[in-house]
Amino acid sequence: xxxxxxxxxxxxxxxxxxxxxxxxxxxxxxxxxxxxxxxxxxxxxxxxxxxxxxxxxxxxxxxxxxxxxxxxxxxxxxxxxxxxxxxxxxxxxxxxxxxxxxxxxxxxxxxxxxxxxxxxxxxxxxxxxxxxxxxxxxxxxxxxxxxxxxxxxxxxxxxxxxxxxxxxxxxxxxxxxxxxxxxxxxxxxxxxxxxxxxxxxxxxxxxxxxxxxxxxxxxxxxxxxxxxxxxxxxxxxxxxxxxxxxxxxxxxxxxxxxxxxxxxxxxxxxxxxxxxxxxxxxxxxxxxxxxxxxxxxxxxxxxxxxxxxxxxxxxxxxxxxxxxxxxxxxxxxxxxxxxxxxxxxxxxxxxxxxxxxxxxxxxxxxxxxxxxxxxxxxxxxxxxxxxxxxxxxxxxxxxxxxxxxxxxxxxxxxxxxxxxxxxxxxxxxxxxxxxxxxxxxxxxxxxxxxxxxxxxxxxxxxxxxxxxxxxxxxxxxxxxxxxxxxxxxxxxxxxxxxxxxxxxxxxxxxxxxxxxxxxxxxxxxxxxxxxxxxxxxxxxxxxxxx
Length: 546
Ligand code: GDP
Description:
Elements: H1 3-8, H2 20-28, E1 30-37, H3 43-54, H4 62-68, H5 76-82, E2 91-96, E3 99-105, H6 114-119, E4 125-131, H7 138-149, E5 154-159, H8 168-179, E6 182-185, E7 187-190, E8 198-201, E9 206-209, E10 223-225, H9 230-235, H10 237-253, H11 259-263, E11 267-272, H12 281-290, E12 298-299, E13 304-305, E14 313-320, E15 330-338, E16 340-342, E17 346-349, E18 354-357, E19 374-376, E20 380-385, E21 394-396, E22 407-409, E23 413-419, H13 425-438, E24 442-446, E25 453-456, H14 460-473, E26 477-480, E27 486-491, H15 495-504, E28 509-512, E29 517-521, H16 524-533, E30 538-540, E31 542-544
Parallel strand pairs: 1-3, 1-4, 4-5, 5-11, 6-11
Antiparallel strand pairs: 2-3, 7-8, 8-9, 9-10, 12-13, 14-15, 14-21, 15-20, 16-19, 17-18, 17-21, 22-31, 23-25, 23-26, 24-25, 24-28, 27-29, 27-30, 28-29
Helix pairs in contact: 3-4, 3-12, 13-14
The structure holds guanosine-5'-diphosphate (GDP).
């Protein structure tokens, strides 16, 4: 597309001033990835080292320091003021080798919530951190399932090789069988724990020597070229023989790295290292820059949107609530899908059909000095949200489209809601309706009875909701345990069957805040039996944003 044509398009608006070539170049140099792991695998440590190596931070400890603080309670002003790495470190932007990297955290521990899952709908690739002593753990499995919904390419980092770990071949086997993903080892460890000597780079035929505690920011570890190099045999006579045997095994038994397969989400390149010792971190950054995809086209109603298109578009994938009563504002996290965003620009909120001027936008440079005034596809911006934005909301310069593929997940935790003051029942319903629509929690109203059931994927969500009901709606709600243990959305072609289903199981059939039919099961057995008894109905563990 030439400049002239672009300028002549009516909806090109503010972005007409940017040549398409500029946008295309900015898109090509962007990498947006999520970092996923089970708690304690070393995600925070690795994040910090990635920032350290890119030069975004000068000192280790910055990310760690904020991890201990409960960022859900930090207030908007504070976020505005610090705007750098302290912005909950949920999004961090930094540069490496002339690439702009957006790193999105997937909060775990007590912060685990649906947002954790939805973050993965806003990334183009993911970095999976595994504790090599433990192997694949529960939270990793869940998060990987979400990555698979969009065939997101995954880079794997096997961490903590400075400890006694499990056998590396066994780890790859487990990855393949449990996560159902092909493994292509790129580096291979030489020893482990006290005898960890380094890694062999299978593609480059180089050995990178390990020295514990090398906190050098440039991560320059000594490299010895060639597995047959006589120097190695002199240095580690025993280990090198074993390495040669293992490398032969690996070449025979595992898949060679294949970029296409990686990009299709079928294969993951695997790196071994030790985040705390800076070892293997540079290789991860290089893999992200060299192999991970730049922003890709996104599906929307009407058509697909290419990242290089001139007009700005984007969607909200996460809303961070504020628990401080003095500052009720929340931030809506928006992923830019195309064009160029500029501070102060007018964009159209498509669900409300209203134009809004975005002047106070939060950006996430890891080194807080820079003030970013513009954003391109792949970048994340934080918009102040006074209650008018919901998960899945799309924004454009005017074109009517809705980005699809932003899922809701069947909750794992349930509470029934009671209020202390019955006169507040209206406010309770209003509050829950809005919080449900916003995506803070899932609200189910059973067809029979007056109960309201809340569902969440992490228990912190209940705390947030209780606090927001109190602060924003003046409702003092009490949450109690229920007999519900899982939920599934239900669909079927035959309206009569659906009506029979509702009538027969009224107490356990409910509607969610968006009006979708769901079944609330009391146990796995109960769910299975119900599915068997109603073969004409389909039970879904996820649903897309309506
Ligand atoms: P997260 O919960 O995944 O963010 O994990 P952290 O980064 O907080 O790490 C959990 C623990 O593992 C901390 O005590 C880290 O110091 C430790 N750790 C992280 N990386 C390594 C490593 O390479 N080797 C060893 N021995 N410990 C590590």
